[in-house]
Amino acid sequence: MGGDQRYKILNRDVIKYIAMFTMLLNHIAQGFLTNGTLVYKLMLSVGYFTAPAMLYFLVEGYYYTRSHKKYFLRLFLFALVSELPFCLLFGLASQGRLAFCGMNMLFTLCLCFLLICAMENLSSNILKTGVIIVVFLVSRYFDWTWYAPLFTLLFLLARKTGRKTVLAAAFAVPAVLFGVNYNIVPYILYVGFVPSTAVLYCILDMAGIALGGACIMCLYNGERMESGRTFSKWFFYLFYPAHLTVLALLLSVSL
């Protein structure tokens, strides 16, 4: 990926561990903290490190995995296991009860993996365009909605071009759209002016995503851990449903 190799000190597994921690902070904020407070917003925004980082490694993993079928089936299996605790945690947080809250992030990764397969294996640009449209339409029911397939397509483009500027744009463009859409647009549409707090929150949301981009572009050495690879591989799959289950149970007891 270029850059000064002296600073490439983080391998893929370390960055994934960081992503798991920031995701945990995000989910704790959504489940247990008061919406609108600065601490809530800081923890929420830091957690936006996770999704783009995982989508980046999803694209990378597509080219490294020995079996696309097994890779997808693992994601799908753990997505199924995670759906109930996902809906319980965020249903309790938003409505005080179990409720459907969309398809969890592992389902989002499944959707984006299928998108990668289509982009890499379909020869017809018409078919590719059709798949992109369908994926963006159905993504509204998935965690990270249309931002996830947008990240995926941009990461694919960055990989094919091999240009660092394209990779930077792949993080920056969705980050700006995300921050503006959730923090600026609602005030413009429904209030008519944008308060300073909305601008601050917009910057914080973009910064969380940018942090993931900076970590990968500046610190990632393109390698995996020398030892403990099997443990790390299964930890990343198990952590998602496990932490959702624990948080959901703690929240149900506290209500």
Q: What is the number of beta strands?
A: 0
What class do helices, strands and sheet pairing give? Answer: mainly alpha
Helix content: over 70%
**Main sheet summary:** none
Oligomerization? single chain
Mean pLDDT: 95
Compute the CA-based radius of gyration.
Answer: 18 Å
Number of separate helices: 11
Our estimate of the beta-strand percent is under 5%
Specify the overall morphology: globular
How many domain units?
Answer: 1
Tell me the series of helices and strands, N- to C-terminal: HHHHHHHHHHH
The parts where pLDDT drops under 50 for at least 5 residues are: none
**Span between termini:** 48 Å
Task: Characterise this structure.
The protein has 11 helices and no strands. The chain has one domain. The protein has 255 residues and is mainly alpha-helical. The chain is globular and about 45 Å long. The relative contact order is 0.17. The model has no long low-confidence stretch (mean pLDDT 95). Helix 7 packs antiparallel against helix 8.
Topology (SSEs and partners):
Elements: H1 12-32, H2 38-46, H3 50-64, H4 68-95, H5 105-121, H6 125-138, H7 147-161, H8 164-183, H9 185-190, H10 196-219, H11 229-254
Give a brief description.
This protein is mostly helical and 255 residues long.
Which key features would you list for this structure?
globular, mainly alpha, 255 residues, 11 helices, single chain
